[in-house]
Amino acid sequence: MTHKLGLFILYWLFIITSGFSQSKEELKHYSDSLYRQLQQIGDHETKAQALFDLSFFWSDYDTTQALSYIREAENVLGRTGSSGYYQGLKSFYRAAVYFEADPAKAKQKYMEAEGSLKDVGEEKRAEASRYRARLWGSYGALLQREGKAHEYVEILIEKVIPLAKSIGDSSLLGNNYQNVAMNLMNLGDYEKADDYYNKALQLLKGKKKALEERFTLFINAARNALLHKNYRKSGECIDSAAVLAVQIPNSSYIPIYHAVSGSHWAAIKNYEKAHAHFESGLSAAKMQNNDDLVATLLFDQFAAYQANNQYAPAKKKLLEVLPYVRQKSSLRNKQMVYYNLATTATELRQYQEAVKWYEAYKNVSDTLFSDKSQEQIHELEKKYQTAEKEKAFLQIKTENQKQQLSLQNTRMLAGVLLLTSIILGVVSYIWYNALKNKKKLAAQKELLLQEELKNHRQQEKLNLYHAMLQGQERERSRIARDLHDGLGGMLASVKLKLSAVATNVDKQEINKESHMELYTIINQLDHSVNELRRVARNMMPESLLYMGLEAALKDLCNAMSNAELKIDFQTSNLNDNYPQPFQIAVYRIVQELLTNAVKHSGASQVWVQCREEDGKFFISVEDNGRGFDAKNDLFEKEGIGISNIRNRVEILNGQFDIDATLGRGASFHIQLDIYG
Question: Where are the TPR repeats (predicted)?
């Protein structure tokens, strides 16, 4: 369940910079103090800059107050404010005001600022470049909020970082290297993220005044290495951070340092050190009155206990997390905690309590779905209102055009002629493109027809193979019943009769040599009956027919395990009511993969995992055997077993992936559509 930690980890990005919260009265008192100080400034440009910065301070709390300081700065600047540099600053600080309230308008203002600042003279070039770096960073952050994380990374690399280099601002450059790294980390590109963390650390290397920045970087780099499962690198970064932690014991990042350290030690199975760090982190977070970090650390402890199969203390930590989650508005965090409480209670066989937590999880999930629908409706309403405004604007524009045309009768003829020429040109162009598109459409239709024929043939092949598989399974079932009920019963009857004859021979004390031969025949007959039952069970296992898919797969794994090969079978969220053909298909796929592993892999350990999620069924079979070259050994000369698996997967609209390397074992990953 460690992948569930993402919701908490991402939240760290928003809390690490705030050591305490201020009331509105405290903010106003602080702002008034700054305002009284700037009134004493004589230079009008310096004073205007201070007013802009004060506006930036208020942009997060009171947009009206923030805009009033911008207007006052404009008045202070007077004619000087008409320069390109100050026009850019006005747009930049207005964008900051609209950042939360109206993101679309904020993006527009940032682009206006970019247009004004990019062409300023040499005198203000450095300051303008610094503002351009800030505005592009903010513009990218707005894109990230829209789910365009890749675009944000591109802006940081192509816009912000070159600007920071051009003015030689190592602090700005280092911060943006770290921003790139954190976004790449969130996108799952851990190797590139590691490169940017290293660049940021190189900039700050040896700088004694940058202890906090280096401390933060080492911790984030360690977190990236943990996500990449590079535990050697995460350990090195944590050791470096530990040295700095001694020098800055009051850093707001101390709880996060212990959280990442605990996760590192838990990942390498040293749970004693992990929990020691978690407890230290909890103490530090509580001293900072940071409830969000307290909840995160408690959840990290739960994950460590769960990974060590210590479900009782794991449940205790989840229950400690619960009050923090309930007092927040985040439904996804509640959903995650309720789900883990349900699964942990199930592991502890506390089924009644598990049902209660599952109901809570289900209610939150339903609410999330409802909220998402409401957001979509709200978005549609906004688009409709925007369209209506644009329509009204167009109507006003049309009326103005009519008035202008009525005042320009002398130019009307020339305008009509010009318009006619344009229309004729447009019509000619449209006609020409229509002919070209018609030809392209005909060619595309031909290609689509050929593709449909190809798909139809492929579907016919799949249908034929499906029918063959069904026929094979019915014949297997019939033969299995005949072997078990018919021939098996006859052999058992013969064995009983021979046993009775052997008993009479014992009583009569007839020839001992004949007596031993008779018992040998009985033993051979007994082995034959067992072998017959094994064959019948392989052709159609009784556990699959009467106990369901999970029991049948478990029996199969137990049956194929031996002293030299251990098979570990795990399931998650499996049901008992799958369609019979689907159960048979899954059973045959796993049976074929295990048979291949036993015959060819030379492995000592095989892991089999089956789980259901969102209507999809996932199968994973991995071994630690000799492996093989996937291209040369499989795809160029694929065997019947793998071919049968591929055909079954295609029938169930599934996907089949193989990951194998010589000397490193093999992994087979299958995704199936349960209902076709």
Answer: 174-207
- Check: CB of residue 275 under 8 Å from CB of residue 301: yes
- Write the DSSP assignment of 4-29 as a string of letters: GGHHHHHHHHHHTT-S----HHHHHH
Instruction: Provide φ and ψ at 319, rounded to 5°.
Output: -65, -30
Of 209, 225, 216, nearest to 256 (Cα)? 216
**Which is it for strands 616-623 and 566-572: parallel, antiparallel or unpaired?**
unpaired
* Nearest of 523, 522, 521, 551 to residue 537 by alpha carbon: 551
Q: Parallel, antiparallel, or unpaired for β 666-673 and 655-660?
A: antiparallel
Report DSSP state, residue 132.
H
Q: Are the beta carbons of 16 and 253 closer than 8 angstroms?
A: yes
Same domain, 501 and 551: no
Q: Tokens for 477?
A: 């079932």
Per cent of the chain over pLDDT 90 is 9
- Which position has the higher pLDDT, 247 or 389? 247
Copy the structure tokens of residue 350.
Answer: 């506390």
In a domain, 420, yes or no: no
Question: Domain containing 454: what range?
Answer: 433-538
Mean model confidence pLDDT for the chain: 78
Residue 612 located in a structural domain: yes
Describe the strand order of the beta sheet including 666-673 as a list of residue ranges: 566-572, 605-613, 616-623, 666-673, 655-660
Q: Over the stretch 504-522, which tens digit does the pLDDT of each residue have?
A: 666 555 555 656 766 677 7
How big is the CA angle at 169 (ends 165 and 174), to the nearest 5 degrees?
85
| Cβ atoms of residues 522 and 499 within 8 Å | yes
Separation of alpha carbons 534 and 541, rounded Å = 9
pTM for this one?
0.46
Residues 558, 652 within the same domain? yes
pLDDT tens readout for residues 72-103: 888 988 888 888 898 998 899 999 989 888 89
